[in-house]
Design goal:
Blueprint (H helix, E strand, L loop, with lengths): L1 H10 L14 H134 L2 H19 L1
Organism: Wolffiella lingulata
Subcellular location: Membrane; Plastid, Chloroplast thylakoid membrane
GO cellular component, one term: proton-transporting ATP synthase complex
């Protein structure tokens, strides 16, 4: 490696011929070359560089505008969503309150209907019991009446002779005849 750098350094010590030639001294020529290159780049690349920077600036500004528009749209959507959420919460609360009221009302109606049904069934039961009692009493009366009638007929038949029987029948016919007129 030392030999390579030595060969470049030794090139710089060549005697100049007094005409046009290359200066191979890196330390002497480098700032000059750099200033020439920078000057050429600035002179010719200034327009291109300005166009590139302007295009980049416009893209950045456009992106910022788009981001602002999207941010504004997102804020509007968020506000709409919040308003809708408040509305839904209010409706849910109303449904909850109305639902509880409706449930309580239905519960009271059901209790009242059940109470009415029980009262009606109790009345029906009492009427049925009263009817059955009346029927049983009527049956007992009929049996007692039939037994009394049979006993009276038996007594009459044993006590009546045929002439008394004939007069009783005639009197009853007379009574029936008087009813027809």
């Amino acid at each position: 490696m030392k030999n390579v750098t030595d060969s470049f350094v030794s090139l710089g010590h060549w005697p100049s011929a007094g005409g046009f030639g290359f200066n191979t001294d890196i330390f002497a020529t480098n700032p000059i070359n750099l200033s020439v290159v920078i000057g050429v780049v600035i002179y010719f690349g200034k327009g291109v560089l300005n166009d590139l920077l302007d295009n980049r600036k416009q893209r950045i500004l456009s992106t910022i505008r788009n981001s602002e528009e999207l941010r504004q749209a997102a804020i509007e959507q968020l506000e709409k969503a919040r308003a809708r959420l408040r509305q839904v919460e209010t409706e849910a609360n109303d449904y909850r309150v109305n639902g509880y009221s409706e449930i309580e009302r239905e519960k009271q109606n059901l209790i009242k209907a059940t109470s009415d049904n029980l009262e009606r069934l109790e009345n029906y039961k009492n009427e049925t019991l009263l009817f059955e009692q009346q029927r049983a009493i009527n049956q007992v009366r009929q049996r007692v009446f039939q037994q009394a009638l049979q006993g009276a007929l038996g007594t009459l038949n044993s006590c009546l002779n045929s002439e008394l029987h004939f007069r009783t029948i005639s009197a009853n016919i007379g009574i029936l005849g008087g009813m027809e007129e």
